[in-house]
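Minimal example, chain plus NAP.
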Amino acid sequence: MRAIQVSEHGGPEVLVATEVDDPVIGPNQLLVDTEAAGVNFIDTYIRTGTYPQPVPYIPGSEGTGVVAAVGAEVTDFTVGDRVAWAAAPGSYAERVAVDTAVAVAVPDRVPAAVAASALLQGMTAHYLIESVYKPAPGETILVHAGAGGVGLLLTQLAAARDIRVITTVSTDAKEELSREAGATHVLRYGDDLAQRVRELTAGEGVAAVYDGVGAATFEASLASLRIRGMLALFGAASGQVPPFDLQRLNPAGSLFVTRPTLAHYTRDRAELTWRAGDVMNAIADGTLRVRIGAEYPLAEAAQAHRDLQARKTTGSIVLVP
Ligand SMILES: NC(=O)c1ccc[n+]([C@@H]2O[C@H](COP(=O)([O-])OP(=O)(O)OC[C@H]3O[C@@H](n4cnc5c(N)ncnc54)[C@H](OP(=O)(O)O)[C@@H]3O)[C@@H](O)[C@H]2O)c1
């Protein structure tokens, strides 16, 4: 099969299309013909070696496709089923071995690109707003990178619950997308960001900040919180936040900071199917829109990473074998 392989950590150029053997499935795995693979920021952290990963490896963890074969002990899925997943290593490939524990059925009317990119970012948005800090209707939150994959989904989930959403974006085009998703106020990054947030909240600050940008926004995020506010630092698109003195949380308002990850919020099959079901059903009934910002041929994975890291993308992006 054709797949992307990484033989050494580095820039996007280490993502090389090559011929490799088909994966061999275990008794509780599905062999899936990939329709599309999701591209996520975490794929760039793994590619550079920021997150540990032995080489060589096939990148990607998310996708959708049609089951071509099932392992000896599989009972819940059968050949021909359409499935999606957010945690199957080696997803930048024409065929992927997917554990049944992470496979989710895809409603017929959900297009491949949407199914391939909805789960990782969608379940992240879901756990952030449902389980990390669940704002009450009328509360105000701040979401960074409001036109990104997670940002657009998180904004829609919040707006549907009558939560006031302030977002940050870098361009006018992204501002428009963020507003369409339901943002109440769209700001630019900058020195006066926290000041602007306070003006929009009558001086009080927001109940929670959902920050996937990291190094560049962390200080403004803290300074934007109300007393006992929650900072959910869920990513590092601009770089990792440096070591931090916990004592600072005290005078700043007895603040909370958490650094969550999806795996810990999809700990068992019941939690995974709850979140995935909510996301897929909302997509199928039209209440949650997944914006596919770009589709790239599988062989152009390097370009997809370049565009994602250069802030050129909006919404979700996928690779199509
Ligand atoms: N912890 C978890 O469970 C989890 C799960 C999924 C994703 N994440 C994290 O969530 C974040 C968003 O992921 P995503 O896949 O949806 O990506 P994305 O938001 O579509 O792309 C990242 C966005 O971050 C903004 N950004 C600000 N400063 C940046 C910089 N210096 N370099 C690059 N981008 C910058 C850009 O938007 P503007 O141009 O508008 O600033 C860019 O489009 C990432 O940090 C990712 O690691 C975490």
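The chain has eight helices and 15 strands. The mean pLDDT is 97.
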